[in-house]
Amino acid sequence: MTHTMETRQPRPSPPGDRAPRPGSASQRSGRRRENLAGYLFMSPWLAGFLLLTAGPMAVSLYFAFTDYNLFDAPQWIGLSNFQEMFADPRWQKSVEVTTKYVVIGTPLKLAAALGVALLLAQSRRGQAFYRAAFYAPSLIGASVSIAIVWRALFTDGAIVDRAQTQFFGLNVGGWVGDPDWILYSLVALTVWQFGAPMVIFLAGLKQVPRELYEAAAVDGAGPLRRFWNITLPMISPVLFFNVLLETIHSFQVFGSAYILGGQGNPCGPADATLVYTCYLYQQGFENSRMGFASAMAWMLLIAVGLVTAVLFWSQKRWVHYEENAR
After folding, report:
1. How many CA atoms lie within 13 A of 16 on its CB side?
2. Residue 66 carries which DSSP code?
3. Phi, psi of 72 (to 5 degrees)
4. 139 to each of 143, 151, 203, 215, 238, how far by Cα in Å?
5. Rg for the chain, CA atoms, rounded
6. Which sign, positive or negative, has the C-alpha torsion 183, 184, 188, 190?
7. In sequence order, what DSSP letters do the residues of 78-110 get, joined into one string?
8. What positions does the domain ABC transmembrane type-1 occupy (predicted)?
9. Cα–Cα distance, 99 to 118 (Å, whole number)
10. SS3 of 196, please?
11. What are phi and psi of 220, to 5 degrees?
């Protein structure tokens, strides 16, 4: 029996069914439509960025080189604001107070956040409630009402004063009235708001493989050794993120420092809580020296940028990323 093989030629497709050639007019038109749709969706953000961020920044940069009091036209004075700033004792005091606040408050806040995150990472009853309870201060801690309550807690004869006298034998009086102690009440307030970094730490801890802890336990490693050799290296990217974020936030503290100082004595007795932004506010809105305040704002931006650059440079030494993850 013979079989005949019949070769069929593919039927040519009609001209209307042909795919457009790369770079054809139809493809370019499609790309333009896609780009237009993308720009339309981005337009609210772009308008907000230009009108509320980039525009005011450009104007403030101009004001930094002028004598401007909010009422008269700005007068160009060059670098006079910066020269006066560096020679101002109160400006130097604000830099000192802010540096002390950042150096003390940020590590304590991150240590509290990591410690609580380690506890909450373990399975236990009521875990959701504890997470919400520890996170709540981050939502309300920055409010004016909480700062007022915090001031009442640390005044002379209040609950903190009575507790430290009764249990520790310390008779230092109210913290908010003592120039040597009021900054520590501000540090205590920021440490109390550890909920946000705690949640980020908790998410990082959930990503650490359990097999590493089991293998370390078989080898005889104790809890501290497992924490130092496994937990910290594995969550070092999360730790770096929290350090960077909380450091920037610490440089920007204002409301709580201003309120803890009290009426008639903002920024604390003897300028004990004269953080940088508090002095900037006084110069700009109380003394109507908007040009000087703008110069201070740009110096703060430069300082935060330098600190951020140092942190990014140092991460190569202590931040460990997974292979091919960067």
Report:
1. 0
2. E
3. -100, 165
4. 8, 18, 19, 39, 21
5. 29
6. positive
7. TTHHHHHHHH-HHHHHHHHHHHHHHHHHHHHHH
8. 95-311
9. 29
10. helix
11. 95, 15
Classify each residue of 221-232 as buried b or exposed e, where b means 16 or more C-beta atoms within 10 Å of its C-beta.
beeeebeeebbe
Query: What local confidence, expressed as pLDDT, does residue 113 receive?
Result: 95
pLDDT recorded at residue 23: 55
Q: Give the C-alpha separation, 129 to 134, whole Å.
A: 9
Q: What's 65's DSSP letter? A: T
Per-residue DSSP letter, 271:
G
> What is the distance between the alpha carbons of residues 262 and 281, in angstroms, rounded to a whole number?
15
- Give the pLDDT of residue 107: 96
Q: Write down the domain spans for the chain.
A: 95-318
- The Cα-based distances of 28 to 16, 21, 40, 82 in angstroms read 18, 10, 18, 52
> Which residues of the chain are under the pLDDT cut of 50?
1-7, 16, 324-326
pLDDT at position 103: 96
The architecture of the domain spanning 95-318 is Orthogonal Bundle (1.10)
* Residue at 138: amino acid letter: S
Q: Please state, as a whole number, how many other Cβ atoms lie within 10 Å of the Cβ of residue 326.
A: 7
Instruction: State pTM to two decimals.
Output: 0.84
The owner of tokens 């093989």 is 5
The DSSP symbol for 21 reads: P
Tokens of 20: 């457009």
* CA gap 202, 218 in Å, rounded: 25
Residue the block writes with tokens 């609210």: 44
Paired tokens of 255: 């409301």
Closest to 273 (Cα-Cα) out of 259, 288, 293: 259
